[in-house]
Amino acid sequence: MQHQLLIGYDDRHTFLNRLSGSTKLLCFVGLSIIGMMTYDTRYLLGIMVLSLILFHFSRIKFRDVSFILSVILGFSVLNLVMVYVFAPHYGVTIYGTEHLLLGHHAAYFNLTTEQLFYEFNLLLKYTFMVPLALIFLMTTNPSEFAASLNKIGVSYRISYSVAIALRYIPDVQSDYRTISLAQQARGFEISKKAKFMTRVRGGVQILLPLIFSSLDRIEVISQAMELRRFGKGKRRTWYMAQRFKRNDYLALLIVGLLIVLGIALFRVNGGRFWNPFKA
Amino acid sequence: MTAPIISFKDFSFQYNSQTEPTLRHINLDIYPGEKVLIAGPSGSGKSTLGRCLNGLIPQSYPGTVSGQATVAGQDIRHSSIFDLSLNVGTVLQDPDSQFVGLTVVEDMAFSLENDQQSQDAMQTATQQWAQTLDLQHLLTHRPQELSGGQKQRVAMAGVLIDNSKVLLFDEPLASLDPASGKASMALIDRLTHSQELTVVIIEHRIEDVLQQPIDRLVVMQDGEIVANDRPETILRESLMAQLGLREPLYLSALKLAGIPLRDCRHLDDLTHLSAPNLTPTLQHWTQGVTLNAPVAHTDPLLDIQGLSFGYTPDHPILHDLSLTLHRGEMISLVGQNGVGKSTLSNLITGFLTPQAGQLTFAGRSLNQQSVKERADHIGYILQDPNQMISKTLIYDEVAAGLVLRGIDEDTIHDRVLATLKVCGLYEFRHWPISALSFGQKKRVTIAAILVLQPEMLILDEPTAGQDLAHYTEMMTFLEKINRDQQMTIMLITHDMHLMLEYTDRTIVLGGGNVLMDAAPADVLTNQAIIERASLAKTSLYTLAEQHQLDPTEFVAKFVQAEREVRACNTNS
User: Fold this and answer.
1) Contact B374 A182 (CB under 8 A)
2) Within its chain, how far is the Cα of B361 from the centroid?
3) Residues of A with Cβ-Cβ distance to B119 under 8 angstroms
4) 3-class secondary-structure state, position B320
5) Which residues of chain A have a CB within 8 Å of the CB of B117?
6) Which residue ranges make up each domain of chain A?
7) pLDDT reading at B1 higher than 80
């Protein structure tokens, strides 16, 4: 079996599934923006817990997402390390105090509580969105994607291209497989047995037919769409669009309040940072 | 007399990218309620004519137009694709590539969404058409996971939902197995009457379309209409072969038996066909032909023992399959879509690994050999040549396999040129591949495999999408390498003509195993197998039954007589 790179939608019969796609998208975008802006640890911990609770209720199985989670975790850790390497004193600059844990005051690489605290905030920011993004992707029917994008103001042509791209990923994958095997049969070695450069060259051999066959697909599909009047009007309706129900308004209200709370905290803290060191 | 719904008057069209007009002086009137078949070889302009009907010409394919063409009263030069699409619904050749919706119901509603209809209206319309086309249980499925016939019904629903009065089919049979093709033709006939449609079918497989009544047959050649009449009249004049089209099999049989076509009535409808002394003449002909003993191939080449495979253990696709292929055989592998034909060839070529079973090739076990090692003995040619071609020049493409095997340049040069000669591509050796026709590209892919000197070839639908001339060319070529080089050839196909006329042995797959392994004439006259493998009764079978002949014997004798005629033609 190949790795489950793509995230699969499945109707898991939860209240999250029943929310409209637009609601979930708006909530996700709203929370992400406020979460990216604030450095208030209490607030970040709050939404982290909230998103973990939601993730639990979404009934998404951990093993379905373990691969993508490990990738994200890997990148986050790498990022945190790089932040430390390039700016080990940034925490001190922000919070204005220095509590030395390791190393010397004058050394470039020393460890301060402030730096650790700052990087902890960063980690929270990287990770709180992940469960939310997964919930959005895995509980929203792909058919509703385009409709949701369109509803929040993205032009329907762009929204539909996103949907079409999603629809074609499996086709292109199977094309890739077929072409790759046919090339291997002629002697292009692209398995791990071959040297790196040979594999790269083999990959290029597959790319050419893949691009041509994909271009053919695009031509046919755009004709088929035109023949059914895609692009005629300034707007279009969506068969799968869901009307807002009570829960949708409720969800938007809660998220709205959370955002207001986040903005209020900027005031209280006198900026984006919450500083526990000032005491 | 009502006014024609489609009318061409001295109409010519030249694509901007071409130096010659593709359509010349077309005069054609099609009346409401008519069912018209437009036939012709590749490049005859029949698809271009179709594009004029749905407005793709001149909107999406710009070019020079002269003369007049109106569809439902609208001049095609001044109406947009959008306007015309309300009158003409188009079902493209490959339903797979035209699906836009993620589910069946969304695809059906696609044009209504573009018309900004309300969700309630869309639900009512999709319900209604799902019922008419028997799609109720498939609405939430992905269109890609349906069978060929179901896909076509979804594509039809997606255009019929506009209530268009003209329905245009571009090669509707090309991607269907014989049984679904037959069902699809029957459905089109039913809709023509119940929905009062005008139907235009572009197709070169005339016999299959004629299974249902057709009002008019329009034959095109080199951009002109060369025949436009009731099918019976055209069939009687026996013009098909001259026009590059395949004659219905029963017609060839009548001619072989020496029955003058001018004496026949209902030539286009086998069930009502009659002629003076038809039965005695056919019986007399059958008695006069002695069946030759079949050529026996006894040298085993590929031996398969107890082969099992499934993507998941509880759903085996192949289960305990055993089979022996002999050197020099020409085999057809048939069966319903999804029955494991591709799986079997993928197991042979090593693309897939079996859960159990032994593969032996010329006495050596294949089980431990890699894809590349097996490819030295067994060549596999995909249906779509574009998926195989990775170079821009013919010479390079054919040489690629040898270059990768590290063979010295002189040997490569000699072998490539020799192979190009065998494949009739020698004159093109410096050409870019993009300048070749589909059939020629296909031959390049075969050359690229033959140059590796395999002992066996597996070809997936070698003749799909090709007209009679290219089909015959391709098959004559394969027959030649089969005969001259004792090449073992296995063809995966839905084409019953191909099975009958060119192969000596047919293997029918079904239920994870071999359903039948016999001569093609035996397979195609076995009612139970025909049904289980989604094949269809050929007109020869029906003809034999009607005239108290033994179908298997009649078909076998017909095939033998045809091959003798063909051998004479090739030798002279």
Assistant:
1) no
2) 31
3) 237, 239, 241
4) strand
5) 237
6) 14-140+245-279, 142-237
7) no
Please give the full DSSP string across B357-399, using - where no structure is assigned.
Answer: EEEEETTEE-TT--HHHHHTTEEEE-S-GGGT---SBHHHHHH
pLDDT at position A6 is 46
Instruction: Tell me what pLDDT residue B423 has.
Output: 86
Average pLDDT of span B272-294: 91
Concatenated DSSP letters of B77-110: TTS-HHHHHTTEEEE-S-HHHH--SSSHHHHHHH
Å between A156 CA and nearest CA of chain B? 10
* Amino acid present at A218: I
Share of chain B above pLDDT 90, in %: 59
Q: Among B73-77, B126-130, B176-180, B369-373, which range has the highest average pLDDT?
A: B126-130
Q: Copy the structure tokens of residue B111.
A: 């044009």
Q: B36 in helix, strand or coil?
A: strand
The total of other beta-carbon atoms located within 10 Å of residue B562's CB is: 16
Q: How far apart are CA B376 and CA B401, in angstroms?
A: 10
Domains and CATH numbers, chain B: 6-227 (3.40.50.300), 300-534 (3.40.50.300)
Helix (H, G, I), strand (E, B) or coil at B533: coil
pLDDT one-digit tens code per residue, A2-34? 333 345 677 778 888 888 888 999 999 999 999
As a whole number, mean pLDDT of residues B276-294 equals 91
The three-state DSSP-derived secondary structure of B158-178 is: HHHCCCCCEEEEECCCCCCCH
**Closest alpha carbon to B425 in B381, B494, B353, B474:** B474
Give residue-wise pLDDT tens across range B517-566: 999 999 999 999 999 998 988 999 999 999 999 999 999 999 999 989 88
Phi, psi of B301 (to 5 degrees): -110, -55
Residue B568, burial from CB neighbour count under 10 angstroms (0-12, 13-18, 19+): exposed
Predicted pLDDT of residue B546: 93
Q: Which residue has the higher pLDDT, B434 or B31?
A: B31
Give A-chain residues touching B160 at CB under 8 angstroms. Answer: none
CB B109 within 8 Å of CB B126: yes
CB pair distance less than 8 Å for A223 and B60:
yes
- Chain A partners within 8 Å of B379 (Cβ): 185
Spell out the residues 6+ positions from residue B564 whose beta carbon is closer than 8 angstroms to its own: none
Distance between first and last Cα of chain B: 52
Question: Measured between CB atoms, does B174 come within 8 Å of chain A?
Answer: no
ipTM score of complex: 0.79
